[in-house]
Amino acid sequence: MHNPASCADFCNNGGMRKAREPQPKSRNRRARKPKRTRPSSAELLIDVARLRFVKGMSNQRIAAKLDVDPRKVKTLLKESVQWLLTERERLARIESGESEYQRLEQQLSERFGLKRVIVVAGRKIQTDEDYADLVRRWSLAAADHFEKLVNDGELRDKEGRLRVAISGGETLLELTNILPDRTRRGVYFYASAFLGRSLVDESQHPDPLTNATIAWARSGRLPGHCVYATVSPPETDNALRPGFAERKEQLRRQLALIAENSAVEKVVRKLDDVAVAFAGLGVVSPTKRSARLSDRLTATGLLKKSMDDTELAKDGIVGDLGCCFFDADGNARDDCQFFLTAGHYTGHRGVEFYRNMCRVGKQVIVIAGTYKVPAILAAIKGKLFNVWITDEETARNILTAK
Asked: Are residues 151 and 289 both part of a single domain?
């Protein structure tokens, strides 16, 4: 039986002539293109968006036209949408007076000793849709800041690892969802608080584990790059409905039992190495907000079965940072630590963890504005964060606040 390849060589080379031997690869052969570094250039993203949304080309035709890997076109399209939205935000700032925004950012940074302030364009919030739009614009700015941290390498350790802690909350959920899918090598994500959620939990407050997992999934799903622990939910004996102090003590005793778990302790101690923390800021203010907004805007929704925010406010609690409650001076309250959070075993419990991060030059990033001015003022006073993403109205309110 003849080998088809040999027969073909025989015929193509004049019958009895010797079959042509494989030729060595030419030294002048064009070298394989290196993998494109990401995030992609603005020019490439514009071309991808134009060919799809204006010319209506398929992914295969776009790949051929731009000489890129067809498997990358879908990701490039997602990135182009994010880039266009960010560019729209930038143009809106220019139309409104870029210099005015820059002045606001500089004034806030200098007055409060912040590493960076990002002010996005905004209008007065009158509806839920207005607020949702503002959260999205905050998240776009936060995503851009995060990509710069990933790319510049300033906060990576000697092994090239960037360790990022993420707490819970609606705004950080929006941020993690908006991140473009790409492999972020050397980036590790940590849930910064271990809340314990029950199946009948009615709070709308997204869990830190959820946010950290989504960020990890958007970053290549690299094995071992998402670190978390699960714990039991805190509960009090509401059948007896003891006094506020007794209920607080019940929660603290449950927290102590959870903290005795060696596996959980190992995970929490790993948080001491994080260099970047996205910390959700919540406000404890029982007035001028519906119960639904309370669930969305603060971690007190997680404690509704044990206590309400009116009791916490009367007790001197103003807000929470990453589910760590603090008073009007931005100080932690040992009697109001209800969740297992970063720093629990190393002398920096509660908000002291974030204050210490700022003190040693790491980044604590807060995205907050409308509805949260009292908590923002207290956290600024306590030096609990050093990067702030907000809106124009809130920025002016903070500057003029006494």
From this structure: yes
